[in-house]
Amino acid sequence: MKKKLMLTDNRLSLIKDIIIRLSIVFFLGFVIVSCKKDSNDVPNNKYTVYTAGFIWNNGNFPCYWKGTSRTDLPGGIGAFTTSIFVSDGIVYTAGYYINSKGRQAPCYWKGIEKINLSCDSTYDAYTTSIFVSNGNVYTAGHYMSGNNGLACYWVNLVRKELEDNSVSGKFVSSIYVVDTTVYLGGYRSGQLYYKIPCYWIGNRRTDLSIDNSNNGKVSSIYISNGTFYTCGSYGDNGQTIPCYWVGSVKTDLETVPSGNAKSICVEGGIIYTFGFYSSNGRCYWKGTSRTILNNYGESFYLKDGTVFSAGSYYKTNPNDPIDAFYVPCYWIGNTKVDLPIITDHNHNSTTSIFVE
């Protein structure tokens, strides 16, 4: 991701695909993380695990799972989920659907009710992250205005612009809300299409340091006791170093690229970040001490010191040795839980996880 948000629909599709595959399948959106104590030996039935994703049925369709019970969401073929949040027993899922003009259109689901968000229906738009606070629904995302790719967030149905949003090249990957104050993490375009990691309080931007690199991004933001914690990566020429920032102070998680920190939380003054590095796959860092996760999780959650992750895995079709399919699942530590799908072929996956 070395170029700024595109000025064409093709580049927007490319960025969207990168986001979907890296965050999942991007996330980009967003992982809300809850921290308590430090133990991974927890029975599966202690928590309720919610995962958002999609299933394949001659095309992808949006859904979420509560435990292993799947709920299909309206929106039709091509609709997609990016983020999930649970508040007062209600499941909120963010994503997009394909509108009557064949464009991606931003929305969120409250339970199974699809709620469309304001945008120009003649251009692509989508959400990346969702947060619920005091009964209000906050979603972050991206939309096109003419040839400009712009970042924004919505409070319920009202779209809020970021500062100087007439200039193309901003992207919001994560949203966090304290009372009614909105915090956003992402990046903006710098010179020569490079990206500058940053966060916003409302629409006021703060850029983050990336040493002598030209490229960086924020993948997740977390607020604790008034302190801003962000994580992501920086680097050039395909080599990226995972890192986090406390305020504007950067700490590298690995010194050998490449990798990315994708979500962050704080417990008792200890910073936990989750992501991947080099060829050793998924992991989390407690401070800067790394623990490997032997799974293919793309979205992460920490609850009572236990690591939950969601994603999918590749499985051979026993009825057709040439065919194979992806099975959506989540992991508690490294213990895998399969999620039900309609047909045992093609691409099914989870995109986000929330734990109660």
Q: What is this structure, in a nutshell?
A:
The chain has 356 residues and is mainly β.
Word description of this protein:
The protein is mainly beta and 356 residues long. The chain has a single domain, classed as 7 Propeller (Methylamine Dehydrogenase, Chain H). It is 4% helix and 56% strand. The protein is built from 1 helix and 28 strands. The strands form 7 sheets. The chain has a 4-stranded antiparallel sheet with strand order 3-2-1-28. A hairpin with a 2-residue loop joins strand 22 and strand 23. The N terminus is likely disordered.
How far apart are the termini? 34 Å
What is the annotated CATH architecture?
A: 7 Propeller
Secondary-structure class: mainly beta
Major sheet details: 4 strands, antiparallel
Radius of gyration: 19 Å
Task: Tell me the strand order in the biggest sheet.
Answer: 3-2-1-28
Per CATH, the superfamily is Peptidase/esterase 'gauge' domain
Beta-strand residue percentage? over 45%
